[in-house]
Design brief:
Blueprint: E1 15-19, E2 23-28, E3 40-44, E4 52-58, E5 61-69, E6 81-85, H1 90-98, E7 105-110, H2 118-126, H3 142-145, H4 152-172, E8 181-192, E9 199-214, E10 217-224, E11 227-233, E12 239-243, E13 248-254, E14 260-267, H5 272-287, H6 291-294, H7 297-304, E15 319-330, E16 337-342, E17 348-353, E18 356-363, E19 366-374, E20 385-390, E21 395-399, E22 407-411, E23 416-421, E24 431-434, E25 447-450, E26 454-458, E27 468-473, E28 480-485, E29 491-495, E30 500-503, E31 512-514, E32 523-526, E33 532-536, E34 541-545, E35 547-548, E36 551-552, E37 566-568, H8 572-577, E38 589-590, E39 600-605, E40 608-613, H9 614-618, E41 625-629, E42 634-639, E43 646-650, E44 653-663
Parallel strand pairs: 4-7
Antiparallel strand pairs: 1-2, 2-3, 4-5, 5-6, 8-9, 8-14, 9-10, 10-11, 12-13, 13-14, 15-44, 16-17, 17-18, 18-19, 20-21, 21-22, 22-23, 24-25, 25-26, 26-27, 28-29, 29-30, 30-31, 32-33, 33-34, 34-37, 35-36, 38-39, 39-40, 40-41, 42-43, 43-44
Length: about 675
Amino acid sequence: DPQDNYTKRTVFQNSTLNVETKHFIFKNEDYDPEQDQLKEIKVEIDPEMCLTHYATMDEETQVEGMKWINLNPTDEETSGILGFEFEKPQDFITLTSSMPNLDIDEEGIQLPSQKLSLKNNIAAKAALVATTSKPQAKDFPKEQLMPQPAAKQEEDKVCAELDFKRRVLEELKSLYDLDQMMYVSPCNLFEQNPTTGATVVREKQIGFLLVKYAPYKYGFDLVGNKEVLMRTLLTEDLNYDIDEKNNKFIWTFQDESGDYRIWIAQMTEDVHKLLEMCRIAQYESARQVTVKENLSEEDQKWLMDIQEDESQIASDEEMEIEFEENYSQEEEDETPILDSIQSINNPMVMVGRENSLGLYRESNEGIEIAQKFPIVHQYGDFRPSQMMLHRQDGNLVMLDPARPKSIFNFDVARGQIVDEWTVDGQSSVIGISAANKLAPQTPEQTFLAMSQKGLFTVDPRVPKPEKAVQSKVYSTNPNLTCLTTTREGHVAAGSKTGEIRMYTQIGQNSKTNLPGLGDSIKSMDLTLDGEWMLATTEKYLLVIPTSSHGDSGFKKRLGKKKRKPKKLVIKPADIAKYKMAEISFTPARFNLGENTEENAIVTSTGKFFVMWNFSAVKRGNLSQYKIRELSEEAIKNEFKFNEENTLITHRKKLELQNASKSSG
């Protein structure tokens, strides 16, 4: 239809466009020789045809197309407007790049509100020039080829944006191959002051691109005057944020002088496409495989559905976390702390150093050492790690990286290692966990262990050195890294590749597998009821609902019903404000209590303690966090049982942090 890009008669539903020097050839992909159908349509490219690029909005998706005056109508046709629509908006760039001398007019975007009524459409069709001779472009008023915006102001804006876009695209042709450009948008570039928040314009009307430089190597280019003005590699060290609500890409870095700079690219194109392309690029660069080759369609959808911004959250929602007084313990022992674990039964903390263990208790003065135990082992130095209190704090189970096949049992009352176990005599153990979330409160003998290739249930009562009584060992190494359990004893295991496996129990196949984002999972935690999962990577946290429509992913394969995960990051503005040289999260933890609903998440990076309001995160508000600068680097954080206080472990001391949460 000449006056409405929404109303049209479809000739080919599914076709392929081949471009020759002077012709468009449309091949009908649904052609059936037994039906009365056209196999192809050949259109001569003529300067008089008024070839026009247009766009419409269809259910919030922009559809781009081309149309022209039909200069050579057949006997069955009336003269009028012909055209086609691209399957992907990027295909328009492909076409114009392959035919740089093609003269194309720009129409702009026609909004759904500009649709004509059926009556008007019929009238418009009746008003077409009817002739059997070759029509001329002058026979078609401009408004019949180009629908007019509702307001002149909107028309001017659209035309200016399209001219801006066309000029940027022209500049890119000499710099990139088409398959390199994963996302292209004209933008204006701003720099924000990390202290005051004030912004200044640095560049106007330049191009922003997500570029594939080589297999599994990606980055962002800012282009102006046919040259690259700024190039930023997309690596795990890049701290960025995509603000869908305001159509912005924000990133920060530390320059050569040590100053932190915040850059903001204000896009004209929708940044949701950029968000999806960044996920693909990050996954592929981390895994060194392609998304299409490695992930099923349902896992690709899960990857694309991850929530990273707050575009659907009411702007007036405010959640506050206030830090209160803190207590720290300092002692003369200069040997660095390697690990710590606090009891969920009483106010006790076990601290591991090389060749020694310390038992600490809380008092009115803070945290004080109550007893120190030397560790004497027949093979020499001992470095405790993966410490876990067991059997109502009567035992401390731990590992030593120098002896990877062994699990050590320390009797707290006797003050010495009393047992050394293996799971099967061959596997190197990299992690241990309680049989269920509250098992340390009970005399439960069994616990869980992990190697890179499998999971084991360990029972110390077995009358042989190999204590595994149940196992799930994979023939192909899944590179497992960490595990955790629910109150019911369901198990979640993370991996180096970012995949997460959910098990009903050890010995069975996993019920649900999540692909992750490609980055190694360094720790896992679960809420007591198992409804929410928390995965820690080096640069971000993932908060993942574990059930859907009443089905638990631990008991049943969720498949396409997997719910949208949430990605927690520190915003670039805060990274610059606090001058965080590098983001490296310690294992994140929920608060834990027997009759307490989890409402907070704690972690740290370097000298900074970070607490997210989990109640807000569940509602989709991902930036409700507080940062507190510490006196020195933290290596571990966890909540005290049934309390809002958190225990922060440093290399030289322990610290208790009090915090309160409120909403306003």
